[in-house]
Each structure stands twice: as structure tokens, then as C-alpha cells.
């Protein structure tokens, strides 16, 4: 089932788990499970007013689950978007669709209408801060030049350039957006800035257009236009033209890019640039789940080059990537290698070593934090020195490992605990409700369980001796373990039929008589049962199907 609507909201009503049926259950399977639970929870079976009230609540809950899953349209909505997908305004006036695809399309239309009402409240801020560091004195210094200079024994490291840019989007209508952006730059004491305003309109599902106006002391006034158009399902074109006004006159420029999908994972690009720096560029980019490959060639003024890069993506939780590239042209040759890794939920840290002739050796550090980018290019030396390559490679790695152990891991661990605690606090009322429902269900099951046990004992069938559900610990702290689990012996015995217990692949916390004792943590079901006079035991992970009895669960006499 797709995630329900509204991030961070609590939703523990798994109808499939409540009825203990497969997600592919037929109408007959649904009806059979529904009848059995109705017999268990029917209010007329109880004379005690409190038990009668509790039975009525559980009976209505089971009836609600059956109504949703037995109706094809409601079931399709629930399967795709969860329980809250049924509560979206507008479903009551929607023509009853036949397929989940049509229902998904209708749902997305209703969602778009909701998004339009919140349109004026949204922006998309993006920013970048780049700080250039000149550290060539670390490797290129000559000691005799500093012998008579006070403090000359220490290398001189300075910031020689800086660039700051920021942009925000302001939606005007569903198809029109205004973009405001600006930047400030300085290099060796000289700098400037500019500001730009762009108006973008989505003309159709196939394209959009943008008009841009800018002013500043870097390039002078600017008037530009950009057009994007899908030519076919596999091909699109982008054209950008501009006029730069300065004291030297008007400088026109134009860039056109044609792109085409060569296959599922490969794109081909052709780009023409006309102006003060004219060029033609062609490239092939292949992006898969595990790798990213680029091959590019440019012919132009003043630079022509060939470039090849490869990036390998590790399939781990930190989204680690290693990359390497080589670029050769009229300006020389540059070899780069590096890595990047996710260090928190919204942050990615990367480092790249650049070795080139005649550029020298540089270390580039980049931190992406949500939509903000922080870039630190550090120029180490103008020469090809093995020592500079070594320190540029090993230094960031050692620094990262130290920061990872001393700062990042403790921070991430504390953040997870804080988020978990907030989730528990926000869902406390729902957890209390589920716990009360579970305790009520256990009370209502007592008579049925007694009859089931008598029947199973008469034929040496399946008897649930003990069953616990929750988080189990491995430190042999029995008291701590009891605080993390709940006793579900009665609910499991109630599900026994013909000396068999079958649990489907669903969240076990939704089963009758169950609730979640440790929200947000991994849970398991531990069962000790007797079958044909022999003891058995099994530990079943959450959302994993379970069938008992099984020979593999048998406890040996020596155990």
C-alpha cells in the first residue's frame, strides 16, 4: 500500500491485518473472515453493559474494514493511498471508475485542486555560497624568502574569491511563476553583483517559455528569453537567447540544445552556442541505478576539449558514490577523482581532487544542504607534487572519519531519537485508542478462546502457550524486554482454526487484540506453542507471513 496522505500523520488502521487476509484476498475470503469476526464481536452476545459497548465499537470497526475492502472502488483507493485517501474531498461526486488506474488519475486531479489552494504559500528557495582558498604557500613556498620576515615560519593561507547567489520562486497562477535571483562576487579585492527577474509560463504539457530581465555591474543590463519544447515523447529542445548591454555596445548570444532518449537509461545531447564564446558540444550520458557515465566533446572558441567521467553508486543507506574523470583540450589536461556521501537526512558531503597541467592541484569540497550548496575550492599548488596529491587525498578522508565518529553519528542518533519521541507524542492519543481497543478485544475473546482450547486439547491440536509481540532485546535484561513487548497469547489462540494458525503478510499490530507497543522500532512476534504434545517455538519478523505448526519450529528435548 502506498503511503497515506500527510507526512508525519499517524495511521495504524490496516484493514487487511484487522481481517487477517491477504492483500490479494478474494470476496469469499473477505466474507469468511468478516463473518467470523462478527460472531466474535456481535454486541448481542454480551449482557454486561461495558462489554456490550466495547463489542459494538469493535463490531463497527470490522464492519468498516469489510465495507471498504468488499467494494472494488474503495479497495482500489485504499490500496493506493491508504485510509486517508478515502477522506479526500470530492470522491462523493466522482463517477464510479472500474480500474485502479482511472481511480489514481481521479485522485491526482483532486490533489491538484488542493495544491492550487495552497499555491500562494509556496516558494522554492535555492542558493549557493562559494569560497575560494589560496593555499599554495603550503607547498610552493621557499624558506629563504621568509627568513627575515616576522612570522614567516607559518604558511600564508588566504581567501581570494567568493561568490554568493540566491533565488526564490513565487507562483502567480497554476501556469505562471515569477523567479527572483541575485548574486554577489569578489575576486582579489574586485567584485560586483547583479539581480535578475524572470517570468515563466507553462504553455502546455509539452513546453514552457521564460522572459528574463537583469541588471548589475558585472555584465550590465540583460534581456533574455528561454523556450523549452517536447518535440516527441523521446526528444526535446531548449533555446536561450539574450542581449547584454554595456559601454562597448550590445552583445547578443544564443544557445540551443537538442536532447534525445537513446534508450531507457541513456540521453544524447547536441548543443550550439553562438556569441563571444562560440562552440558546439555533443555528449552522451548514461545513468543507471548503480552508475553514471558521461562522454563529451566540444569544439569552440577559446576552448576545445574531450571529457570522460564515470561514477559508481553504492547501494547503501548513505548513498555513497565514487567518481573519476579526465578532461583534455587546448587548455591542458585535468584528472579528477573523488567521492560523496549522505551524512544526514538533508545533507550530502563530497570531496574531489583535481590534478592538471598547467592548472596544478586543487581540493574541492562541496556540501549540499537541502536546496543550499556550499562550495570550497582550495588551490594547493601550481606544480605536480606527489606530496600535495597525497595530502589532498588522505587529509579529507581522515578528517571525515574523525568527524563521522565524533560528530555526525552522535548527531544523527540523537536526531532519530528526537524524531521518534516527537512521533510518539503526536500519536499518543491514537496509540491509547488502539491499546484500549486491543484490551477490549481480548476481554471479548475469552469465551471463544476457552472453547477453542477445549476443542484443540481433545484432539492434541494447537495450543498457544505464550505469545509476545514487540521489540526483543539481546542483553538478557528480562525486565527491559517485558517493557517492550505485550502478551498476545489470547488473540493468537482465537485465530486458531482446525489446529492451524495462519497470519498474512501484513502489519501484526493491526490484528484483533494487538497494538503497537514501541512505535517506530523494529518488532517481532515470538510464539511458544504445543502441537501433538510437543513444544514448538518461533520468532517471526514484522510483516512476514506465519504458518504454524511447522516441523522446523520443534524444540528438541536437549534444548
TrEMBL record:
<dbReference type="Pfam" id="PF00226">
    <property type="entry name" value="DnaJ"/>
</dbReference>
<keyword id="KW-1000">Mitochondrion outer membrane</keyword>
<dbReference type="GO" id="GO:0005741">
    <property type="term" value="C:mitochondrial outer membrane"/>
</dbReference>
<dbReference type="Pfam" id="PF11875">
    <property type="entry name" value="DnaJ-like_C11_C"/>
</dbReference>
<keyword id="KW-0143">Chaperone</keyword>
<protein>
    <recommendedName>
        <fullName>DnaJ homolog subfamily C member 11</fullName>
    </recommendedName>
</protein>
<comment type="function">
    <text>Required for mitochondrial inner membrane organization. Seems to function through its association with the MICOS complex and the mitochondrial outer membrane sorting assembly machinery (SAM) complex.</text>
</comment>
<keyword id="KW-0472">Membrane</keyword>
<feature type="domain" description="J">
    <location>
        <begin position="14"/>
        <end position="82"/>
    </location>
</feature>
<dbReference type="InterPro" id="IPR024586">
    <property type="entry name" value="DnaJ-like_C11_C"/>
</dbReference>
<keyword id="KW-0597">Phosphoprotein</keyword>
<dbReference type="InterPro" id="IPR001623">
    <property type="entry name" value="DnaJ_domain"/>
</dbReference>
<keyword id="KW-0175">Coiled coil</keyword>
<dbReference type="Pfam" id="PF22774">
    <property type="entry name" value="DNAJC11_beta-barrel"/>
</dbReference>
<dbReference type="InterPro" id="IPR036869">
    <property type="entry name" value="J_dom_sf"/>
</dbReference>
<dbReference type="InterPro" id="IPR052243">
    <property type="entry name" value="Mito_inner_membrane_organizer"/>
</dbReference>
<comment type="similarity">
    <text>Belongs to the DNAJC11 family.</text>
</comment>
<dbReference type="InterPro" id="IPR018253">
    <property type="entry name" value="DnaJ_domain_CS"/>
</dbReference>
<keyword id="KW-0007">Acetylation</keyword>
<dbReference type="GO" id="GO:0042407">
    <property type="term" value="P:cristae formation"/>
</dbReference>
<keyword id="KW-0496">Mitochondrion</keyword>
<dbReference type="InterPro" id="IPR055225">
    <property type="entry name" value="DNAJC11-like_beta-barrel"/>
</dbReference>
Amino acid at each position: 500500500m502506498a503511503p497515506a496522505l500527510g507526512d508525519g500523520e499517524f495511521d495504524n488502521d490496516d484493514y487487511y491485518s484487522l481481517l487477517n487476509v491477504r492483500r490479494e484476498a478474494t470476496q469469499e475470503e473477505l466474507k469468511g473472515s468478516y463473518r467470523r469476526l462478527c460472531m466474535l464481536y456481535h454486541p448481542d452476545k454480551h449482557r454486561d453493559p461495558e462489554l456490550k459497548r466495547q463489542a459494538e465499537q469493535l463490531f463497527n470497526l470490522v464492519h468498516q474494514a469489510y465495507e471498504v475492502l468488499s467494494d472494488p472502488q474503495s479497495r482500489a483507493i485504499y490500496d493506493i493511498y491508504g485510509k486517508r485517501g478515502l477522506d479526500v474531498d470530492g470522491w462523493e461526486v466522482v463517477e464510479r471508475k472500474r480500474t485502479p488506474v482511472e481511480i489514481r488519475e481521479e485522485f491526482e486531479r483532486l490533489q491538484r485542486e488542493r495544491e492550487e489552494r495552497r499555491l500562494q504559500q509556496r516558494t522554492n528557495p535555492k542558493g549557493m555560497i562559494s569560497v575560494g582558498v589560496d593555499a599554495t604557500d603550503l607547498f610552493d613556498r621557499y624558506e629563504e624568502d621568509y627568513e627575515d620576515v616576522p612570522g614567516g615560519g607559518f604558511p600564508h593561507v588566504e581567501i581570494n574569491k567568493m561568490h554568493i547567489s540566491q533565488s526564490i520562486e513565487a507562483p502567480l497562477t497554476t501556469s505562471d511563476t515569477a523567479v527572483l535571483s541575485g548574486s554577489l562576487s569578489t575576486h582579489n579585492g574586485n567584485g560586483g553583483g547583479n539581480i535578475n527577474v524572470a517570468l515563466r509560463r507553462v504553455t502546455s504539457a509539452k513546453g514552457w517559455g521564460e522572459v528574463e530581465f537583469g541588471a548589475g555591474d558585472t555584465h550590465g543590463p540583460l534581456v533574455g528569453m528561454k523556450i523549452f519544447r517536447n518535440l516527441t515523447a523521446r526528444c526535446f529542445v531548449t533555446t536561450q537567447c539574450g542581449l547584454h548591454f554595456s559601454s562597448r555596445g550590445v552583445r547578443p548570444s544564443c544557445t540551443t540544445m537538442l536532447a534525445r532518449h537513446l534508450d531507457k537509461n541513456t540521453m544524447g545531447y547536441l548543443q550550439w552556442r553562438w556569441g563571444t564564446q562560440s562552440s558546439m558540444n555533443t555528449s552522451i550520458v548514461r545513468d543507471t541505478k548503480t552508475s553514471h557515465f558521461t562522454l563529451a566533446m566540444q569544439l569552440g572558441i577559446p576552448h576545445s576539449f574531450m571529457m570522460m567521467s564515470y561514477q559508481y553508486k553504492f547501494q547503501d543507506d548513505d548513498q555513497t558514490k565514487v567518481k573519476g574523470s579526465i578532461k583534455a583540450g587546448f587548455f591542458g589536461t585535468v584528472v579528477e577523482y573523488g567521492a560523496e556521501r549522505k551524512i544526514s537526512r538533508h545533507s550530502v558531503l563530497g570531496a574531489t581532487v583535481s590534478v592538471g597541467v598547467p592548472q596544478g592541484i586543487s581540493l574541492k569540497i562541496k556540501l549540499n544542504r537541502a536546496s543550499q550548496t556550499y562550495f570550497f575550492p582550495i588551490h594547493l599548488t601550481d606544480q605536480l607534487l606527489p606530496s600535495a596529491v597525497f595530502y589532498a587525498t588522505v587529509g579529507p578522508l581522515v578528517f571525515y572519519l574523525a568527524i563521522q565518529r565524533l560528530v555526525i553519528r552522535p548527531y544523527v542518533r540523537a536526531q532519530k531519537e528526537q524524531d521518534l519521541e516527537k512521533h510518539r507524542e503526536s500519536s499518543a492519543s491514537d496509540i491509547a485508542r488502539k491499546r484500549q481497543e486491543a484490551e477490549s478485544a481480548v476481554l471479548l475473546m475469552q469465551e471463544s478462546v476457552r472453547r477453542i482450547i477445549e476443542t484443540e486439547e481433545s484432539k492434541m491440536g494447537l495450543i498457544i502457550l505464550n505469545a509476545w509481540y514487540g521489540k526483543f532485546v539481546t542483553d538478557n535484561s528480562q525486565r527491559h524486554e517485558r517493557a517492550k513487548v505485550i502478551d498476545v497469547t489470547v488473540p493468537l489462540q482465537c485465530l486458531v482454526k482446525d489446529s492451524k494458525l495462519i497470519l498474512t503478510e501484513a502489519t501484526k499490530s493491526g490484528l484483533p487484540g494487538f497494538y503497537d507497543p514501541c512505535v517506530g522500532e523494529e518488532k517481532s512476534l515470538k510464539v511458544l506453542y504445543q502441537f501433538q504434545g510437543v513444544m514448538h517455538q518461533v520468532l517471526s519478523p514484522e510483516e512476514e507471513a506465519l504458518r504454524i505448526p511447522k516441523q522446523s519450529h520443534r524444540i528438541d528435548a536437549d534444548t
